[in-house]
User: Fold these one by one.
Assistant:
Number 1:
Amino acid sequence: MSRQSNRATDSKKMNSELFTLTYGALVTQLCKDYENDEEVNKQLDKIKFTSHVVLHRFFQEGCAAGKITNKMGYNIGVRLIEDFLARSSVGRCHDFRETADVIAKVAFKMYLGITPSVTNWSPAGDEFSLILESNPLVDFVELPDNHSNLVYSSLLCGVLRGALEMVQMAVDVRFAQDTLRGDSVTEIRMKFIKRIEENLPAGDE
Amino acid sequence: MTVHNLYIFDRNGSCLHYSEWNRKKQAGISKEEEFKLMYGMLFSIRSFISKMSPLDMKDGFLAFQTSRYKLHYYETPTGIKLVMNTDLGVPNCRDTLQQIYSTLYVEYIVKNPLCVLGESLQSDLFSSKLDSFIRALPFFSVRAA
């Protein structure tokens, strides 16, 4: 085992461009992979490649890449929450408003260096929006027209969903607005679904 | 003063890790059964305590002691539960348990993508770090055991 990490290196800030570019490479690769999948199917059929097929293909790619990054985000989130709790010494939240505050002011700050604003509360207090003035993931990105269906930063949705699930909250997370797709701000909409109850494992006695 | 043993449970009740140092009396049942018994007791204590408390609680269950030993309990918001048994002379151990969580469990288990969460921990690195951490505690002393 060659792991030499210690707490001292943790405080060192990593260049965020590296993260942004790595994420960009990941999304690009996913889009390519899906192109290839389709390509194989279409190989014998190349002559019939009409623009309609191309559009259809890109639509599927966009959705598929979004779904995969969301799933990856989820897997990151279920681990990231432990790191977050260990570092921040934030305790259990008692309502969704407190959760919203912690996400925006502590978690986003810690991992992305930004503090989104929390707005648009539903009257029931079970739904709110995070407005991101800047999204570090998209620093160098311009969505080509043929990827207009790609939810580029859907990784973030997955991270939020996974992390909150680990603290017993089932939450629906989606992008409501995205500057990449021409909106004026980036808005992540979060909806509280239910509290996940902790059960005594079924014993064999 | 001494440390007897330490359990780590996940939120589903599986025992992720167990190690012992100065435990003179074994339970006389299989470890599997012991983990279930321990988790069941912790689960009941938590629910008992939250129902009995006349006020809203912040941290809930912290510790209990008998004539011979003291059980220290720490639970993270994600439901990871750390349980350490010591003798009676050891003061409040929440900081110690919190440290085990943040500097050992998170560092060597959560950040190791090869460690599957929710399964019994196989990492030798984690075990050896934990062992040296416990042995370095000011109240860990084999001599006094």
Number 2:
Amino acid sequence: MYEILEKEVLAPTIKKVKVKAPLIARKTEPGNFIILRVDEKGERIPLTVADHDDKTGEITIIFQEVGYSTKLLGSLEKGDYIQDIVGPLGHHIKMEGYKKVVLLGGGSGTALLYPKVKGFYEMGAEVITITGARTKNLVILEEELDNYSDRLFITTDDGSYGHHGFVTDVLKDLLDQEDNIDLVIAIGPVPMMRAVADMTEDYGIKTIVSLNSIMVDGTGMCGACRVTVGGETKFTCVDGPAFDGHKVDFEELMNRLSFYQDEEALAGEMEEEVNG
Amino acid sequence: MALKPKKTPMKEQPPEERINNFDEVPRGYSDEDAALEAERCLQCKHQPCVDGCPVSVPIPQFIQAVKDGDVIKANQIIKSKNNLPAVCGRVCPQEEQCEEVCVMGIKNEPVAIGRLERYVADYNMDRGTDKASKEEIEKYRIPELEGKKAAVIGAGPAGLTAAADLAKYGFKVTIFEALHATGGVLRYGIPEFRLPKAIVDEEVEGIKNLGVDIQLNVVVGKTITIDELFADGYEAVFIGTGAGLPKFMNIPGENLNGVYSANEFLTRVNLMKAYKYPEYKTPIKVQDKVAVVGGGNVAMDAARTARRLGAEKVYIVYRRAEEQMPGRDEEIEHAKEEGIIFKLLNNPVAIHGKNGRVDKMECIQMELGEKDSSGRRRPIPIEGSNWMLDLDTVIIAIGQSPNPMLTKNTKDLETESWGGIITDENLKTSRAGVYAGGDVVTGAATVIKAMGAGKKAAENIKEYVLNKNK
């Protein structure tokens, strides 16, 4: 059992929890994720470790409530326990050797982007961060990102805050105006990552995306998370979650992510009933 | 009284009833059945059955105790060698082990050793007399090993057995398990209707009773490394991480929705209890027409599970003939009784989709040619014999190999090209103090072979630590 030490509501549906997990905290590097199971009857879900402190043995998880399990997790308070957490899993992103990096985060993907922003900044790279949200009250981690970015751009779909439009609008301007961008990283909904990858391909700039496939065990024993990258089948949990955005079959990824839609909707309805 | 030529039958849940539930199919022996069957044992002096058992259970002795009506003693005799008898009595392929060499089996059916072992284990579990007493444990203690730390990686049959034996010697044993539950393949692979999970829980309790500590949710190689274990004062490490990496066929359409590896399918159902969805929150999607590709026990388990999840038509698609099927005869028989349709001498060449979902599987007929390196006749495709099978789900059960997660993240641990860990005859790896056994060394094999390896490794670890500390 893993105790929740702190909880914070970042936006109406985006929550941040700090959990005691010393073994995981000691080994985590930016890009690693964990698999957790909220309770005995729960499913195993993958979530990125947003932050970690090996001295205190704490890890921070930021997540958006999108279905049954994340809503249940969001309902837990300080002092409550999470049944199982395993990690750190997946490859962390190699950060050495880049001078100028553009990092894009969409929606709750921004939380997953944050450890990479911090990581690249601490490595001494020039960090340009673009975070996009649907509307103003869904913008998260503005201060944290600002602390570790040389430049920070915020976009909202409805124009209620920052640039009116998509993260790709800002990226397009940067690609046209800036020299020497040697890496782009995009984390967010699949259509956003795909749009970023399509755009940077024309400019020949290396682009890494972090894939959010369906996972069960997260240790490479089942292949639920398989994706096609450069024509080959890869397991997101062990070969990723970060991949070359120019080689990912996004169409297939979106199809696979939609497989359990009906079941997820059913679980959601049942939870509505429970909560009235 | 003349000896009965046939095994005392075991009652089973009828097929038409059992395809609607996940309850265990064979019901086990009653006291009377067990007494009748025990009478069939000839108590031979040379005991070939014991040599046939990978963990050398003193079979005639325990059967004698059953004859004498002392089922508690029978259990103690079994447990002196076998730490998981309720599991073994159920899932061992006795027909190619202890029962194959049973003298009774030369002219008649062999003694039903597996059924008797199961009876003894269940009898004692039901009465709470299955846990080893302090005195029994005391018999194995080696004072020099008292309190020395040993680490076991993986809580499957090999790891559980090694841990139990090491604990009996006096080691302070910690098992590190990546999943949130113990048992390895006993938990996530073998379905409830063949091995109830309550039985696995009970066996694991017996091992904890020996003083073994079990740490769940720890992926060695990720959460902690073997080097760190040694730095933490562990004197020796046993690797029993199994062969859990699923093989795919690499044919077009394999990433369509509705295509599962057997590992994913069975993990969802067994470990995550997706068959109880939505009470349990992990979903599984099976509709009307399911094909399972492969001919081993995993394929039978997946097919029979799909049937229980409500699939109308479940096919086994296997590239060789029935005689070459690696699955146990009993499981193949059970599958047939449950209406599984066998499409033998057929191999998939492509999976075709509609709207991103499985719609049809294209198969090619096969014929058998010369024997290959495995001694089985090689299947050869018959040109132009392609045909289509209407489906909505495909489950790939063509085998597994060792997961490279641990070996990739451990320095100086030598492996075979297919991923298996290389060991010497004492199950010692290329690294001092590190032993390995079970599927991670042999590739996917049987539960009892893994247990045999765990036992042997524990014995060699004992010798190694005793010598090291001289």
